[in-house]
Design brief:
The protein is an all-alpha fold and about 120 residues long. It is about 80% helix and about 0% strand. The chain has 5 helices and no strands. The chain is globular and about 40 Å long.
């Protein structure tokens, strides 16, 4: 179980650090042009807030493993990612982007697995 947690936690953290950086450092127009049509529904400030949350949550998931420290950080990071993914799934369903909603459901399940496996209590 520990190896599975390490693999899922690493993939989830890296994915959200990368996507968070992409969204944070790109304009709304570039995000939409690269396939992120969901961004059409949001103001640039909200997109930056989502991106920053993804970036910080991804770091919270992987940094403790790299630094070999235990505690609440992976649990909190994965929980934040799960909350982000729930919102993302609803946005994609509302926009009738079922394929994107399905992909985000996989990320939600990964985050919930890390929440369960990383619970410090």
């Amino acid at each position: 179980m520990e190896i599975a947690r390490w693999i899922v936690q690493s993939l989830l953290g890296l994915l959200f650090v990368i996507t968070g950086c992409f969204k944070f450092f790109q304009s709304k127009e570039k995000i939409v042009a690269s396939g992120g049509t969901w961004a059409e529904d949001f103001k640039p400030g909200i997109i930056k807030a989502i991106a920053a949350t993804e970036l910080i949550s991804g770091l919270l998931v992987i940094i403790p493993k790299i630094l070999k420290i235990e505690g609440y950080l992976p649990f909190i990071g994965a929980l934040c990612i799960a909350i982000i993914m729930i919102g993302s799934i609803f946005v994609h369903i509302r926009r009738k982007e079922i394929q994107h909603a399905a992909i985000n459901t996989v990320f939600l399940l990964m985050a919930l697995f890390v929440v369960y496996a990383a619970q410090p209590f």
